[in-house]
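Weekly structure sync, notes
Attendees: PL (lead), two postdocs, one rotation student
Agenda item 3: pending single-chain targets
PL asked that the sequence for the first pending target be pasted directly into the notes so everyone works from the same version. It is reproduced below exactly as submitted, 636 residues in total.
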Amino acid sequence: MQKQTLSFQAEVAQLLKLVTHSLYSNPDIFLRELISNASDACDKLRFEALNDASLQDGDAELKVRVSFDKTARTLTITDNGIGLSQQEAIEHLGTIAKSGTRDFMAKLSGDQQNDAQLIGQFGVGFYSGFIVADKITVESRRAGLPAAQGVRWVSEGTGEFEVSESQRAERGTSVILHLKDDANDYLNAWKLKGIINKYSDHISLPILMPKEEWKDGEEIPNDPSGGRQPGEMVATGEWETVNQAAALWTRPKKDITQEHYDEFYKQISYDSQAPLATTHNRVEGSTEYTQLLFIPAKAPMDMFNRDKAAGVKLYVKRVFIMDDAQALLPTYLRFVKGVVDSSDLPLNVSRELLQESRAVKAIREGCTKRVLAMIEDLAANEADKFKAFYAEFGAVLKEGLGEDFANRERLAKLLRFASSTTDTTSVSFADYKARMKEGQDAIYYITADTLAAAKNSPQLEIFRKKGIEVLLMSDRVDEWALNYLHEFDGTPLQSVSKGAVDLGKLQDEDEKKAAEEAQTQFKPMLDKLKEVLKDKAKDVRATTRLVDSPACLVVQDGDMSTQLARMLKQAGQPAPEVKPILEINAQHPLVKKLEGSDHFDDLAHILFDQALLAEGGMPDDPAAYVRRVNQLLEKA
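Predicted structure, written out during the meeting:
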């Protein structure tokens, strides 16, 4: 093959410009990324060799080597993993196949230190080498190909790269960084070992560096004081392992510090912050496995994309099997990061087998219980951390009400809401129950598009008047999740926007009597309103729930709320046509004005549309609403 000069994918060229000009605040990350890539290449070889042992070619001891040459000013990271073919070098080093850089660019904050930490998160870790190098040479040969089919890839981080065939005796990859003038620190063994110990100590493969020993300087000839030349570290010609070379989760807990856990978490999650909580356990019994799980401090940008692959890393007997093993945790815990290492699963386990395996179901249950225990511990003992957790992950935790029947009660105890008596999302169902009024027999709540819409809903007026607390729910998932939770600790949950308001013992006999009289007295007007609004409203009735507002919309018990129907339509999902019930306040001046009005029809439509607006909806014909209001204003 002749040497080819190819152009980078446009997004890669854009990324390289960013890397080489902006991300200098934490340049050490390049070594973490390149060693991680080398480790992944070895894991891939080990996995493929399960079906084809010849790929290991008599060299089964997988390792990563880091070396430098002060004279040539190069730093080389070499692995004996799966390697690259010519086409793979063009595809993987010239394009960003999956993540792209649009998301990467979108997440940049302008804080160089934080921005640099994002490198690995978007599958662009290789390009971080250009932080310290003005030229990178990659020499590789894929396992199973002959020595003559090696490949050499060279780029100076501009818009192009060169690819040519090369002779390479051993399989695997060497990444050779031609260092910039200001990167002399990386020609120092002590500096490199420090970075490896900090970021890559947990890598289960040995990371080797040339062994060095101190050599005193030669005596200075004819020096009466016996002086010597300066001493220096010199290579012995041997290699030494500079990391623990043992997977972190396999080491005894007493030998692991929180700093070790934090650095391991940052490595596997590409997060710049330490985790909020950590759990590390070995489970023995009918199913044996080790779990090392973390709750992040911040939610990822794509947390609500339920189609995105998420989950923990799966190992079997310390052999890496797959990233994002979704079967090991329920979907509502998709924010959890970590590792599960099983002793029982077969090494050739597939994603399909994971769905059916009894051992996997036991691991899933165990991991779920462990994560919920971590969250419960935060709630009970670390209020500030739990508040931070709930602000990031509370909404996704609610999905568990509909997904995890076995843990529904545990989840319900962890939920927090704002209420009509507090703006902070801090009220639990237990807190609410503890301060229910005497005679109150339900937990009242309201769902809305925003907290402001919930707090100012007309449907709360009678509850405010009587001093009854109502939980305010404004997460998009609330309406759906509450369909699966009908009571808490024996007390039913009641939406204030569904069904007729029934305050039971909290409503005195005079109020009940007044409501019945209003229904009878205003029956002719209610019937007329029903006729005018027959295309919009399922029914029209007088109510006692309103104090200051003329009207509000509710739905019948068991019907889908108008809010949930709107959400489904916005998401492109099929939703039934929901006709709400219009409830009117018979004592309100605007309602009284309806009787005998020459503009009854217009007023009726305005009354309905205003009730719709008050709950966050939008009239089917906004222009008609504006026209009706303007006409009435002109005649006023």
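Discussion points:
- The longest strand covers residues 232-241.
- Confidence is low (pLDDT under 50) at residues 96-102, 112-123.
Action: rotation student to compare against the earlier draft before next sync.
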